[in-house]
Amino acid sequence: MDETTVLDEMPAEEVLEEEKPTKKSRHSKPKKKKNGNKGKKGLIIAACIILAIVVLAAVVVFVVYGGRHLYLRAELGDGAPAAAEFMKNGAEASYVSEPNVSLTKEGTYIVKVKSGGKVRPELLIVRDTKAPEAELIDAKITIDDKSMDPKDAFGEIKDASEYTVKWVKQPEYGAAGVYDCRIELKDSHDNSRTVDLKVKVLGLIDVLEYEAGQPHPQLKDFMAVERDDAKLLTDLNEITWDELGDYEVKAEFGGKTYTSTLRIVDTTAPDPDIVLAAVLPDGDIKAENLVLGSGDATKVSYEFTSEPKLSQVGAVECKIKATDAGGNSVEKTGKVLVCDALVEFEASTETLTEKMLINALGADYAGYKMQDEGFELTSLGAHAVTIAKGDARAVIGVTVKDTTAPTAEGIACDCSTGYYCEPIKFVTNIVDMSRVTARFVNEPDWSSEGEQDVQIILTDRAGNETTVDAKAVISPDTAPPVIYAARDRYCYVGEAVAYFKEVFAEDNADPEPTIEVDKSKVDAKTAGTYEVTYTATDHEGNKSSVTVKYTFVEKKISDEQLDKQVDKVLGEILTDDMTVPEQAYAIFEYCYNNIIYSGTSDKTDWKSEAYRGMTEGVGDCFTFYATSYALLQKIDCQVLSVERLNGKTQHFWCLVNLGTGWYHFDTCNVGPEHLKCFMKTSEELVKYSIQYWRFDTTLYPALETTPYSMG
After folding, report:
1. Which pairing describes strands 504-506 and 514-518: parallel, antiparallel, or unpaired?
2. First-to-last CA distance in the chain?
3. pLDDT digits over 479-512, tens only?
4. N or C: the chain end with fewer CB closer than 10 Å?
């Protein structure tokens, strides 16, 4: 071995020790001693050079990167950090150019950062160190499912790189139950996590949420799979449908019993029927005294949020809060009449007369005279009537009440298999002084063909109830939809035609039958008469068609002119605090009192006649109708046009639905006995004339039989 190599590898202390002369060894070799010195010097020089390089590097790093991190690490998918994160002292910094950092691939990047007027390169190391993140959902499959993709157990899976999802422990397919399972999520950089979860294998659906007041669910609504041999083991008629909560429902098929949960909820706020109430000065009144009905399927409580001040005679406003069993609430405005005296009358079609009022008040008010016009005793709630005797005046609170339950006849109602049928269709000849609603005591099984006995509860606006026996005759649906309000019409040349403005279809089973129009024969740019065909189709494919004639004429009044005049009139007769019925009555009064019957009109142009009725105030029944129609279209109601059937002369009026069903609305002021035909039933009109308001009932929906109440 070369001695030089050995020396170079020896520690400096040992080399110096061997170089010392001894008395016994005078013959040392000068050459080797010289080489040893050279080695020592070389090491010293090399060490100095290395030290100088280190010092120089430290100086360079300090000068260049003083106050900066030498590098930063970032998680894959996060992108580049804020430039200021490269600074140690929180100094402001910015990138010279937008860093091009991959969100899906690991890498090392040089980015340029500017701070304090200096631009320096920085090192950014991007790595994937996080396992995939996932949000579990309520994992459910049915007994018919043979497998389940583990991804279906998660709503969203997040990771910056590609990942795999696989079962560690799967559910038992084909057997109903709740199974403890495990899934592994692993990305392409070997980051992984396992997730424990429960998977439900269902025969029936887990939870059926039912909104109180809606048609009751049937067996098919609980089934998670299709089985012809399925049958309910739970009697749904024993469930208290207006009480919120969970109910266990069992069904059987394939020799096994399955369980579901029926959850009755109430998410709809009540819609209380507010009426005027009357009280003596400083009397006592509760919030519920102003309410006839809740309009809710569950129990409703009422409270004043702004109590009325009852110290002085007059109408005072208050606020009422209605809250149902589901916690839904609504606040409505009501009014209380503070009166000098109070009387009550049972609802009837009679008109309140002075004699009736004074007799009800008694001897203390003998000789007083009514200062107000009498009104029909059909409107439930309180009414203020002023009476006077000489200088003495008094405000009387006249309360119209309804204490009589409705009467009706139950019928055998034809229903279609699998379709819900409204309970009101099971009764006829309803007699009551206020609006009547219907509900089932025991709802029929709509899936079973044949006859079923049912009971219907009828409730009037005042809360009086009666029960009627009826039958449901359930069979496959073969009846086509009925098309309403399809009739001959006049339109304007060159103007877009609203073919469905009034026309609609109803079906005995399908709640939303489709309706189409064939207008291929129409040339809307040329005056003339053309055939238009409407066709309605229900879910079962049953069809009906109606063909009518559309006659196109030249327009005399522009839509802009008519709209401007309509807005002008409504601005004069309506106020912001009016209800829809009050708005409709204001329109009726305007037309009845402001148009003079002249016996002439252009019955081919309703817009011109409506404009004429509002600007000239003259015309015949068509003018009254057209003016009413134009104004009614601007408020929140439904309106249909009607023409007299088989009369010696023509007569026109409207059918109007203000939310409580269809009624006659005829503002013509020269009809039989100059009747104010505001929201009248056909039965009421027959008393005045059999022919005057006769119309083709097959073209229109059924009209209400209960006298209208303004409420």
Report:
1. unpaired
2. 122
3. 999 999 998 999 999 888 999 988 999 998 888 9
4. N
